[in-house]
């Protein structure tokens, strides 16, 4: 009876020290960030943020320090949380923003919920989905799935979700985060088909905070990638150089990880499954490739153009 909501918190948080418990559902989840630096003694320099929502709207929630190794893997997209003894702060203006699946949802952009192991120590409870009551008014997780046939018409940097059958996966490669630094991004290229086009999705998959999934992507697996961004290289033939890359909020799922995920209810996901049931596995296996160097976007045909 004493649960508050995000809309009320945004209006009253500056005049309060303690807040009533909060019931929210996780809609987006970022990769885990390590912010430790040489010479600075910090026990657990980790941070992760989530976009959470209730019936009044959506805001950011930040998980700090030792709470990250304790809770990060348990907090999945779709998880319902009961939060007690949390803090409210002015939102950090420079973090990336995921694109919500529900464009009508109100966003409280001025505040963020801060979960710490002290000052005060936050109490976190995960509510099993079967115990979630309709009268709580928590929003469902919504997606922006596209088909391969729709991709060519989408603008640069458009945010979307995709599902496909993996036909190619390249070796893991590294790219420097910045020039002359020793930090690297780890990524790999993959192709996935969904039966709506002769062309595959070309996916640039950076290692997120899901190493168990990233290392197991292989041909013939059903691959779901959320919060991907469209990349267009404006050349003579833009459709040949369009691909999708992961964002800070991307989640990747392969066969064996799909059960219970909210996207299994999506119409485009169901359509893909129906298409796969009509395909010959033996025919698809003949077209699959694994490993090797994959230069993309491809360089021009002659050296003077290059």
TrEMBL record:
GO terms for molecular function: single-stranded DNA binding. The gene is Radx_1. This is RADX protein.
């Amino acid at each position: 009876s004493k649960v508050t909501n995000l809309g009320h918190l945004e209006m009253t948080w500056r005049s309060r020290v303690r807040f009533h418990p909060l019931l929210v559902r996780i809609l987006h989840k970022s990769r885990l960030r390590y912010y430790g630096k040489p010479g600075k003694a910090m026990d657990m320099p980790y941070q992760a943020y989530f976009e959470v929502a209730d019936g009044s709207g959506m805001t950011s929630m930040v998980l700090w320090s030792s709470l990250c190794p304790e809770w990060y893997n348990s907090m999945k997209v779709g998880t319902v949380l009961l939060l007690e003894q949390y803090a409210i702060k002015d939102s950090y203006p420079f973090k990336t923003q995921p694109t919500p699946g529900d464009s009508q949802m109100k966003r409280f952009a001025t505040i963020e919920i801060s979960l710490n192991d002290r000052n005060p120590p936050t109490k976190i409870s995960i509510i099993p989905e079967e115990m979630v009551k309709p009268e709580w008014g928590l929003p469902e997780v919504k997606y922006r799935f596209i088909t391969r046939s729709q991709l060519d018409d989408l603008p640069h940097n458009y945010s979307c979700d995709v599902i496909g059958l993996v036909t190619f996966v390249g070796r893991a490669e590294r790219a420097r985060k910045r020039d002359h630094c020793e930090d690297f991004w780890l990524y790999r290229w993959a192709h996935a088909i969904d039966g709506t086009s002769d062309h595959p999705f070309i996916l640039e998959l950076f290692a997120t905070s899901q190493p168990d999934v990233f290392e197991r992507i292989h041909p013939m697996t059903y691959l779901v990638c959320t919060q991907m961004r469209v990349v267009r290289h404006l050349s003579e033939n833009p459709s040949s150089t369009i691909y999708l890359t992961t964002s800070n909020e991307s989640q990747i799922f392969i066969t064996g990880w799909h059960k219970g995920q909210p996207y299994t209810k999506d119409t485009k996901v169901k359509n893909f499954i129906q298409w796969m049931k009509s395909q010959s596995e033996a025919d698809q296996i003949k077209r699959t490739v694994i490993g090797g160097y994959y230069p993309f976007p491809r360089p021009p045909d002659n050296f003077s153009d290059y």
